[in-house]
Each structure stands twice: as structure tokens, then as C-alpha cells.
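We include the entry.

. . .
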Amino acid sequence: MSVLHRPVVRAQLALVRAQLAVVRPTRRGPSGGRAGRERGDVPGWVLITLMTAGLVAALWAVAEDQLSALFTDALDSARR
């Protein structure tokens, strides 16, 4: 590569880098493209959490004595 050609190549690379720096954020959005996907998932996680809490409460209401005995037996066997 000639000495005169190097500054031209460096200038072209600087231009490409500047263009990429400008184009990348506009393609993905100001937050990097993550906020739109994650924001819509919050109601799903809330529903899963509430359903899990409901299932635990229902199981505990039905089998409280058996679950307590199971837990106590597990702790006793772990201590031995």
C-alpha cells in the first residue's frame, strides 16, 4: 500500500465507523431493542406467579397434615 493511499483508507474507515454508529441505534431503538420484548412479558410472569401461589395454597389446604409430616420426616432423616 502506498504512503498516499493510507490516509484515504483511514478516512474511509472513519466514515464507515461513523455511519455504523449512527445507523445501529436507530435500527434497534434507543434501548437496544430489548425493552419492547421484555415489557410485553410482564403480564405473563405476573399470571404465572399468581397461578403458582394459588396452586400452593390449594395443595396446602388439602394436604397440610401430610406435607408437615413429610417435611418433619425429611428433616429427621437428614439429621441422622
